[in-house]
Amino acid sequence: MKETEYREGLEQLSEHYLEVLRLLGEDPQREGLLKTPMRVAKAMQTLTKGYFEDPHKVLTDALFEEKYSQMVIVKDIDFFSMCEHHLLPFFGKAHVAYIPNGYITGLSKIARVVDIFSHRLQVQERMTQQIKDCIDSTLHPLGVMVVVEARHLCMQMRGVEKQNCITTTSDFCGAFNQAKTRQEFMNLLRG
Asked: Which of 15, 29, 85, 125 is catalytic?
């Protein structure tokens, strides 16, 4: 979905945001808010475009037979997502490793998979698992590991209000069940 292409329901979404402004005690006819409901509706469609993209297809569109069987790491993949509990952003970096089993995918495709799952209403734990599961079920590698580090505005702006908190999640399978392989990945992340 291109930035300028929006899905069905945009107008209705805008009408709901108009009502939200009223319920918050604002005057939606105030000059600064006249276009806000539509802007928010467009932003929300962009932030949730991942529901309408197929991460498996992204990986298979650039699938290549290759005998390489060592760790492939794509680290420091920036992402932005929306916490499904408060509809506030969380953002950070994802680090993905896989060990090919006869096939590799284009490196940018790993980052695209992260984008697709992050462009949905999410919790960090599920997003981490979805990225791992998608790569595992599509590429059938010898192993996959995903580490996600994020800052959550729902923790920074409200509630506990801790500005320097970083949440780290990980998920792994296959060869990464071995502590030695996981440690190699973690050492390469720090390197």
From this structure: 85
Residue 123 to residues 48, 50, 76, 81, Cα–Cα distance (Å): 13, 14, 19, 9
CA distance 106 to 64: 8
Q: Of residues 45, 122, 124, 130, which has the active-site annotation?
A: 124
Residue 108, number of CB atoms within 10 A of its CB: 11
The pLDDT tens digits of the residues spanning 39-91 come to 999 999 999 999 999 999 999 999 999 999 999 999 999 999 999 999 999 99
Is 85 in the active site?
A: yes
Active-site residue 184, yes or no? no
Is residue 84 among the annotated active site residues? yes
pTM value > 0.90: yes
Nearest to 124 by CA among 164, 158, 155, 163: 155
Whether 152 sits among the annotated catalytic residues: the reply is yes
The active-site residue, picked from 53, 56, 86, 173, is: 86
